Request: fold
Amino acid sequence: MKYVLMFVETEAFAKELEAMSALELEAAYDAVGRWFAEHSDKITHHTRLDPMHTATTVRLGGGEPVVTDGPFVEGKEVVSGFAEIEVADLDEALKMVSTWPACPLLEIRPFS
Amino acid sequence: MSESGDASHEALARVVREHAGRLAASLVSLLGDFSTAEDLVQDAIETALRRWPAEGVPDRPDAWLFTVARRRGLDLLRRESTYRAKLDRLTWPAPAVPDDRLRLIFTCCHPALSRSAQIALTLRVVCGLSTAQIAAAFVVGEATVAQRITRAKRKIGEAGIPFRLPPPRELPARLGEVLAVIYLLFNEGYLSSTPERAQARDLVDDAEWLAALLANQVPKEPEAAGLLALIRLHRARGAARFDAAGRLVLLADQDRGRWDRQAIEEATALLVRAARSRRRPGPYQLQAAIVACHAEAADFESTDWAQILVLYDMLLHLAPSPVTRLHRAVALRYTKGAAAALAELDDLDEPLARYPLLHATRAELLRALGRRDEARRADEQALALTANPAQQALLAERLDWT
Reply:
């Protein structure tokens, strides 16, 4: 089965990152790099999105498109990256994300 | 027809429960499609529930159900040649199928499904309840249950939830989901919070049956045996919980002569065996041990409250919960007195504001301390919050004579 993992950042997590020293930040990035390396045989593609202040949202359907600054959800949880994986089933995907070392929220959604 | 031609409601439930899950498990394995297999089994069960009351239960209910499911499948799946070809080749008993119901249970209780979906699926797929029976047991509309089941089955198929036993490392966590589902079923049946049915027998039967199946299949997991012992210890005292008029009788006032002593001894032995052989205490074993303490006391006065208090402390350590703290406060009343117990309730006002037993307990403690007016107000609060007719009657009676 193919799944997309959506990595979601929370406000608390963003604050944690901000508070980190350069050294701690490097260690955090290393952990993420190791996780991707460890699962490289199952990850077919992955993307890290640029920070949310770079996002632009367009709403269609009410006459002229309405363009606004920022991500489409005005919440405290914002998608910050994607990975496409190919594994046997949901349990394998769940096992894989159980060791994810960074942001505290993930959505797993199958695609065909 | 066999002598099981006695097609009473309970006999039917028993036969269906014994065979529906096995048939579902083997069809899921053989067809490789959870949803299709489940539809066929459900169809066969509904046919059986229609025909058996009149015709009697067949000698081989498993073969009968299988034949109906297979015929129905060949009929329905005319266009889907792969399933059709698979079904066409099937004979009963299917080639040496091991008891796959454990896999079925783990699939139905997968953590990626909501708790309500886990419950509905388990009842339907493992225990063979019809949608109407589940709706009646939980007092929700049939359409709601049907939709819950349809959604859950789609999620299993489309999200790739496997039909597989969790590997040993994941087993304890996944077992926790299954135990929680069975425990909720038991509670719903035993302490049913809905009017007109102070005791819904069927769900309690189903819960005990599921717990026994589970304990039998995962003998190395003491919590499964703990839950089974807990359910059996409660049931052993069931006959004394209601008086002739259907009113709830409190533990202190129960006629202990009506408790099933043999069932209590057997359940206690089961608990002790599980606890001693594994030495891994858990919330279900501890709750069962608390109930065993009550069950072993010859009368209310000889209850070993000190021991019960220790068990509650262990339980709170493993699984902190405001409801457990409330129960612990009751044990504290009999070791340290009503004033000490009452003080413990203050912290529980916020988390348990809408929990009738908090107010009923406060009323009891206030009454023990001679604070009658406050006790009355607490009883009124409890009465306003409970929908259970037996509990309502008990509280109303207390208001009458105080």
Observations:
- The mean pLDDT of chain A is 92.
- The helical segments of chain A are 11-19, 22-38, 90-97.
- The first helix of chain A runs from residue 11 to 19.
- Strands of chain A lie at 2-10, 43-48, 56-59, 66-69, 77-86, 105-110.
